[in-house]
Specification:
Length: 312
């Protein structure tokens, strides 16, 4: 997944992190950090797919969320007192969106190729960008995305598992919700406290599902180790890299780089899972990536809606 690393809840404020007139000679550094984070996310997703025969899709989600939550809580040590009922309501909804996004995405990649799943999932943030911007040029981006989806499905998606397609699209809807509540949580909680608490909510909600599906398999040393690796690759490491990058990288550039996720996922699927792409599928992914980049740039020009961030 995206599918997905922890997003920086306050990434929309990232352009202010670098002082005006700051030297640009280090600009390749933060870009490299974001790309490294994206590669880590998608190769973590590929590792998760290979782990599913051992622990099941819900089991893998549970391991990832639980390990990530433990690490985030230990690192952030969020303050629990002094928050209003609305604050807690926001962080709980954020956590539920995060958990649902992960659960639906992992159900998707259990049925369809990783690159295809990420391409369908990214339609959620893309739709959010298009609807929020309300400019005529967005008809072009929507057309490109629809063309990509048409190519991806060969006209009727008969070559793809319908349940996998539905799960990926559902994950995209949850990703859009994740973006909205990530921004709201970032305004209510300092630094990454809200993210750590939301991740704990997601982990607690998914733990019964993972136990029901996988039971004792979750504590098998090999499975537990691989699950911890998925958590580190898909959440902890990318979040750290992005946090460092956003100190000097404009949020607009960050969002454009996030648009490359479907292409990175396709490469990871090919290298790790031997999921080769046909020419139409490669063209479809390219169209969706172009549409996502275009929508982000249009949105940045309007300075309105929240920028898409990478999912946890």
């Amino acid at each position: 997944m995206t599918t997905p690393t922890p997003a920086q809840p306050t990434s929309t404020a990232a352009p202010a992190a670098a002082p005006a007139g700051a030297p640009r000679r280090g600009s390749l550094g933060p870009v490299g950090l974001v790309l490294a984070g994206g590669i880590s996310v998608q190769f973590g997703g590929a590792l998760a797919v290979s782990l599913m025969p051992r622990a099941g899709a819900l089991g893998v989600v549970t391991l990832r969320l639980v390990v990530s939550a433990i690490v985030m809580l230990l690192v952030c040590r969020p303050r629990l007192r002094g928050h209003s009922r609305n604050d807690w309501g926001t962080v709980v909804v954020f956590g539920l969106a995060m958990g649902a996004m992960n659960g639906l995405f992992y159900q998707a990649v259990d049925r369809i190729p990783l690159g295809t799943a990420v391409t369908l999932e990214v339609l959620g943030p893309l739709a959010l960008s298009v609807l929020a911007s309300r400019r005529a040029i967005n008809l072009v981006w929507a057309g490109l995305a629809l063309g990509g989806v048409f190519l991806l499905g060969g006209g009727n998606f008969s070559g793809l598992d319908p349940a996998g397609v539905a799960f990926a699209l559902g994950a995209g809807v949850m990703w859009a919700g994740y973006i909205i509540f990530s921004a709201r949580t970032g305004r209510r909680f300092p630094q990454a406290d809200g993210l750590a608490l939301a991740m704990a909510v997601a982990a607690v909600c998914f733990l019964p599902l993972g136990i029901a599906e996988s039971g004792a398999k979750l504590v098998n040393p090999t499975t537990l180790g691989l699950g911890a690796a998925v958590a580190m690759l898909s959440s902890v490491l990318p979040y750290t890299l992005e946090l460092l990058a956003l100190r000097s990288l404009p949020a607009s550039t960050f969002a454009v780089l996030m648009s490359l996720e479907p292409a990175i996922a396709a490469i990871a699927g090919f290298l790790v899972l031997d999921q080769a792409l046909t020419a139409p599928e490669a063209a479809a992914i390219a169209l969706v990536v172009a549409a996502s980049m275009g929508a982000v740039r249009t949105q940045v020009g309007r300075r309105k809606a929240p920028l898409p961030t990478e999912p946890v």
